[in-house]
């Protein structure tokens, strides 16, 4: 009897309840990530047991919807909602249909990207520098649309004089995949880790479905405002949002606020610093470490949001995680969230 009991709880039998609780606890621990001198990323993690594909896809679909409703609504509408300015102020009555086509294009592009990420992994994921350039372009596009709205003012032209291309709305919606918000980056990480095109497509499609009500409401509000005297005020707000998006792109790329390290030193030992990722930024925002000594940066996640993905050493890292850096020269190492909104600095001295 003792041997039979041991076999049942061991590797050859079904795990007990305490093993399930242990695995659940381990999933919440920071996952080690190693960045070498070339900027390549290695994640050290355990292998989890496989689950049926249909159950995995259903779970990821539900998780994507929840993430879109709870965490993605504010960040994604702030980053991508400005593109809806290209569909407002029309003098015909098809604006509701245009917003629907915008959402359909967004759903198609996100689902396709999720399938590619699940199939090919991070090989098809945009690097931070390319993402930063797209943020700058998107911000400039929003500013152009906002200026057009302010100059146009109230609608006085006949419907046929200003009919947009039938492809504009779905193309603008599909283009939002190129300007991901912070929560979108987290969904992309999940799609990559799923290792399945079906599961990757499910989590991204669920995320779009969760954010769809906010985009539909924003499109409705913009459509109504564009036909009133508040159009100029909406244009001013959109210009501010476009400038904010451009600034986020510049911050993400390190084109502003960066401090290059001047010289290289070396030394023995190892050190650890801890950074907490909150919805208001990284705490502490500035930490100090010894130059020339390997350092482990332990990122602990407090709140879901933009700071849940950090860009450090030219790579995106999903939190919680432990980033292992090789010996650094004297100077400052800057890291930012996935949207370039919040940043932190590690001073090496």
From TrEMBL:
The keyword Membrane applies. The keyword Protease does not apply. Keywords: Membrane, Transmembrane, Transmembrane helix. Residues 25-45 have a biased composition (Basic and acidic residues). The chain crosses the membrane at residues 98-120, 132-150, 171-192, 198-221, 233-256. InterPro entries: Cupredoxin, UreH-like_TM_dom. Residues 66-244 form the Urease accessory protein UreH-like transmembrane domain. Pfam families: DsbD_2 (PF13386). Coiled coil: none annotated. It comes from the Bacteria. Residues 1-51 are annotated as: Disordered. This is Urease accessory protein UreH-like transmembrane domain-containing protein.
């Amino acid at each position: 009897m003792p041997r039979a009991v041991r076999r049942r709880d061991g590797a050859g039998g079904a795990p007990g309840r305490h093993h399930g609780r242990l695995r659940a606890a381990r999933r919440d621990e920071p996952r080690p990530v190693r960045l070498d001198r070339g900027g390549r990323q290695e994640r050290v993690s355990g292998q989890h047991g496989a689950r049926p594909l249909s159950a995995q896809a259903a779970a990821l679909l539900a998780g994507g919807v929840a993430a879109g409703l709870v965490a993605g609504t504010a960040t994604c509408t702030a980053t991508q909602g400005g593109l809806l300015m290209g569909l407002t102020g029309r003098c015909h009555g098809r604006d509701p249909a245009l917003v629907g086509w915008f959402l359909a294009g967004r759903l198609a592009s996100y689902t396709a990207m999720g399938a590619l990420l699940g199939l090919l992994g991070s090989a098809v994921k945009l690097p931070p520098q390319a993402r930063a350039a797209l943020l700058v372009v998107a911000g400039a596009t929003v500013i152009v649309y906002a200026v057009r709205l302010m100059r146009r003012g109230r609608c006085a032209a006949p419907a046929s004089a200003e009919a947009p291309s039938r492809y504009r709305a779905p193309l603008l919606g599909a283009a939002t995949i190129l300007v991901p918000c912070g929560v979108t980056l987290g969904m992309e990480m999940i799609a990559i880790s799923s290792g399945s095109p079906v599961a990757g497509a499910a989590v991204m499609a669920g995320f779009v479905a969760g954010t769809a009500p906010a985009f539909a409401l924003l499109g409705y509000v913009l459509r109504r405002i564009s036909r009133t005297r508040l159009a100029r005020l909406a244009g001013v707000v959109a210009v501010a949002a476009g400038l904010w998006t451009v600034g986020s792109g510049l911050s993400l790329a390190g084109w502003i606020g960066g401090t290059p390290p001047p010289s290289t030193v070396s030394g023995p030992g190892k050190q650890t610093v801890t950074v907490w990722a909150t919805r208001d930024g990284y705490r502490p925002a500035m930490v100090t470490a010894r130059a020339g000594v390997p350092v482990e940066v332990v990122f602990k996640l407090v709140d879901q949001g933009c700071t849940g993905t950090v860009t450090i050493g030219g790579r995106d890292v999903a939190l919680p995680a432990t980033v292992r850096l090789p010996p650094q020269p004297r100077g400052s190492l800057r890291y930012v969230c996935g949207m370039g909104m919040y940043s932190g600095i590690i001073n090496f001295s």
